[in-house]
Design brief:
7 strands, about 45% helix, about 10% strand, alpha/beta
């Protein structure tokens, strides 16, 4: 059994002074926790969410707890390219240079069997979770490449490395984000831009509540029971994922790129030696399992 290293995470993480970040889906849950962590580390943050009222309430709360001139907000639906364009323009006006993008915004999508869920809802989830994430990354590259530096952090997780029946749109997007991360990282590595995916672990957020409310008949008895158990005593604290996000946004992680990292289980922050070893192989990536990997001799003559 892998050790649970939550208690080993440093409460005071890397200093992000002088860095500015755009954080999507930042009005609640993990996005809000990431914004809080970044501000505590002296970064400036542009918050983004679809609900303008909720977003403004979060901006005011964070501005009251930290330096108000380091907190800004722009309502945007990342499924809309026009609204994403406006988000990036607002962030540039507020802070000048932007060094970090955290692609956190996501929706659960339709729950139930793939052949019976509403097709328009399935496509809408793809539009937010995958297309929206990709377009935000595309915009970020335009800001990062001239400076030959930048950090793109994509929230992946559920469904990326394991199947997630009856949540097909969500699972497909999370797996696609992991592969998109690895592919984009190779494209922009020579520009000094790091691109990583983060699996925050099971989080006791509104998404959990939606899945519990859906019931076992819709999402399956096994998944429903697992979520209820995690909701009561096994969920990962939001601060764990926020801490890994701060590490990936910092200079400490420079050169670590193209990986899917588990906030709860992986031994971050990494030493320079381990970072070099990770970069030399396929650790923390998605790969096909062959018979030989499992000790089978099927392909031998």
């Amino acid at each position: 059994m892998r050790p649970d290293t939550r208690g080993l995470r440093r409460q005071v993480g890397p200093d992000l002074a002088g860095r500015a970040a755009i954080i999507t889906g930042a009005s609640r849950g993990l996005g809000a926790a990431i914004a809080e962590r970044f501000l505590a580390a002296n970064a400036s943050v542009m918050l983004c969410a679809r609900d303008g009222v909720e977003l403004e309430a979060r901006r005011a709360q964070l501005a009251g707890a930290h330096s108000a001139d380091r907190v800004a907000a722009q309502r945007a639906d990342i499924a809309s390219a026009t609204e994403v364009d406006a988000l990036f323009a607002a962030a540039t006006r507020a802070f000048g240079r932007i060094q970090i993008l955290v692609n956190n915004a996501a929706v659960t999508g339709p729950l139930g069997g793939f052949d019976v869920v509403d097709w328009s809802e399935w496509l809408a989830a793809i539009s937010v979770n995958l297309s929206g994430t990709a377009y935000c990354a595309r915009k970020a590259l335009l800001l990062f490449k001239p400076h030959r530096y930048g950090k793109i952090i994509n929230i992946s997780g559920g469904g990326a490395a394991d199947p997630l029946p009856r949540m097909s749109a969500y699972a497909v997007c999370k797996a696609a984000i992991a592969r998109f991360t690895e592919t984009l990282a190779l494209e922009v590595k020579d520009h000094g831009i790091d691109v990583n995916a983060l699996a925050p672990g099971p989080l006791a957020t509104r998404m959990f509540d939606q899945m519990i409310a859906a019931g076992p008949q819709l999402i399956g008895a096994e998944l429903h029971a697992s979520i209820k158990k995690q909701r009561s005593k096994g969920a990962t604290p939001l601060e764990v994922g926020a801490g890994l996000c701060a590490y990936l946004a910092s200079a400490e992680s420079d050169g670590l790129t193209g990986r899917l990292l588990a906030a709860r289980w992986d031994p971050w922050p990494f030493t320079e030696g381990i970072k070099a070893e990770i970069g030399e192989g396929d650790i923390y990536t998605l790969r096909r399992i062959t018979p030989q990997d499992r000790g089978k001799a099927w392909n031998e003559p």
